[in-house]
Each structure stands twice: as C-alpha cells, then as structure tokens.
Amino acid sequence: MKKTLLFMIVLGFSLAITAQTKLDFESDAIGATTNAAALWAGGSVDVMANPYKTGMNTSNQVLHVMNDNYCAVYLKIALPAGTKTSYPYISVNYKLCYVGPNGGDDLNYPNTDFYSIPSSSTSYADANTSPDVMRFASSIGWSGVCWGSATVGTWTQSSFTFPSATLTNIPEGYLVIKIAKPKLEYLIDDIELVPSPTSGTDIYTLENYEARTIDEVLTTSGSGATASVKANPTDAAQKSAEVIPTDYGNYLRLNAVLPAGKVLSNYDRLYFDIYIANSSTVYKQMVIKANSTTIYQDSDYPSQGTNNVWQYRNYDLSKLDLSAVTGNTFTLDLGLNTNTDVAKYYIDNVKLHENVIAAVDNQQVNPLIVTCNGNLIRLNMIVDKVELLDLNGRLILGQKNIKEINVSNLSSGVYIVKSLLAGKTYVTKVVK
After folding, report:
1. What is the pLDDT of residue 201?
2. Could you say which residues form the signal peptide (predicted)?
C-alpha cells in the first residue's frame, strides 16, 4: 500500500482543512467519492478495484472516471498560490489508463486542462470566467500529459510541469484535471505533487557538469555507449553530458557520493533533465540502476517527450528497492535502452530530494529541546543556524545564532525545525 503524505496549513496557504500532496485510493471504500468528485454535470467518479494490475500500476484500487461530457475531476490535492517560475512544486504526476469509448469516437491524443478551485461546489462559470484565474493551464498537448493512441488496459505515467502553465500565477485551491474529450471512460491513480528541485534546502546535486571541461570523457556502464562533456545543446554557455549508445543496456554512469552518514534510502526523489537529439522516434525505455542493479525500468516503450527539447524527469525513490546501496558511495546508471547512435541524448542536473519526514523519524539522538508556545518556537540552547520547513520540506524561513523563532505570521499546523549545532544537523517536528 502506498504511503500518503499529509501536511497542515502552511505560510501563505489558507485553506482551512488538512490536505494531501499524494493521493491514492487504497484505503477508500469501493464506490466511494471521499477524495474526488465529478464537476459540472460532466459525468461521474467512483473508487473501484483495479481491473488492470499489470505494468506500472499494481494498486488494488483506483479512481474510475465516466466522462459523459468533458468531465472535470476534482481531487483532494491542495495547491498553494505562487508564480509558475518559482512554484514550490515542479510537477503533478499521475497515472492514467484508458478503459473504453463510453459512446465517444474522438479518443486519441487528448489535450488536458488544469484548474485550481476553492471547492467542489465552484461553478463552471466561476472557474472559467475571464480572466481564467482558476484554469491555470489550458489545452496542454497530450505528450507526457495524457495517452497518445488510446489502448485499453494500458497504464500511462503522466506528468504536468507547473512552469508550462498557461497563466503566470497559479491560484490556491484544489487540483482539477479535465481530459478534453467529449466522451470516454478511464482510470486515474497515484496523483502526487512533486517538490521543486530548486526549492528548499533538502536538494542534493549529484552532478551538473559545470565544473568539468568540454570533451572530458565520462564513464558509461559498458562498452556499448560513449559519453563526454559537451556544450548544452540549447545554451552553449552551459555544460551537459552527451551520451551516444551503440548497443542495448549501456548507460551514462555517475560515481555518486552522498554526504557522510547518508544512504540512497534517505532520499525520496530523483530528478534529472534529458534531451533526445535528432531521433527518429521518442518511444524508448528509460532505465535507472544503482550499483548495477536495476531499480527502475519503463514497463514498455513510452514516449519520452519531444525531440530536441529538454525534458524534465523525476522518479519516486520511496517506491523502489534501494537495498543494493548500503553506503554513501555507489554507481548510478541513467539512460535510454537503445542500440543506435541516432538516439544520441544529453543528461544534466541530476539531483536528489531528501526525505525530511524520514529524517525526523530515523534520528537517534537529539540534544535539542524544541517547544512551541503561542507565537514563539523556543530551543533550549542557541544554535548556529535554524530553518523552518513545512512537511513537504519547503523552506519557510531561516535564521542564524538564535534560540527563538517568531511564528506569529504562520497559520496553525505541523512544522519541521532543522537546526545546525556544532556541525551536526538535528530535525524536530513542532505543532503551532
């Protein structure tokens, strides 16, 4: 059963309920609509047993959507207000599975709309009135966001990146996803907000190639591929890894080094960028290995996006078997399983996101006593540095050489206090 991460109200976000950043339907009753709703008389939703427990989705239960008339699906996923260029989440990920036409004949390559609305009772007129402050992304193309050619029973890993939003400003509210087809039947599952790899202090960069020299030879997992440092194909002032495969099963290899005391399981998200150059097809298989053990592999040969454009990738490490890595050094192989140099590609900005909740739970000895009394968080001694985070690891504030934090401007909720003392980091949960 998948874990659901809950967070309380945070700074600048005033919805007066507890909201989820991850949503599956494993604990919902069959037929329930507890965490979702069909809007604007467009159809119906209900939780059902997963009829296609194969490939990338082996969940027992999923959300069933009967789209009768451009059905918009309201989900109990709360979105904070923010600008798309500095949004605290890089993307919303979800899995889709086409089931049937439901009387429709226009089923392939759908566009998708995304909304952020105050409640499930928000009217269609209010959500779509000009200016479209609630519909923050309109008619987003199918590639990576939805299925292409509709195939019954095939799960598709889909993702919408917030920087590609139509509007500059994303309003606070609840997530709504509308597949813009008049009639069809489909399933949706594992909806998740992914923290931005440039937001917060819990991002660890494994490699961005900027400190390396052009034409420097890089390591690969085998002789069936070569790799070297080249100018970024879209920005010659930047550097990236160029990978040229000539045989299957050969990938870019990073000799990864984590901070002392850390192992890969301390991190819950892997990020990187990929650019597929001049390929005849983007239907390729992504593979990720740790210490030569496969930890992720696409179940089929899905679209990897558009040729000659940087594509953002992220993978949930908390759902993968990371037992092959027991120390803070390991090899990490990334790339496409292909045997032709026509599929030359670039990789850049390989990063990890630390699981701050696990850091709290796994911490053995903490000499700090942290309490919250009204509008003050107090520590029992002065610390070198303190950061206050929400439960997604998003930085709210940071101060140095203090033992008190004024939180009078924060809403009630659960927060993480991350303190640096004598070179060691200690993490504590507090409730305001």
Report:
1. 61
2. 1-19
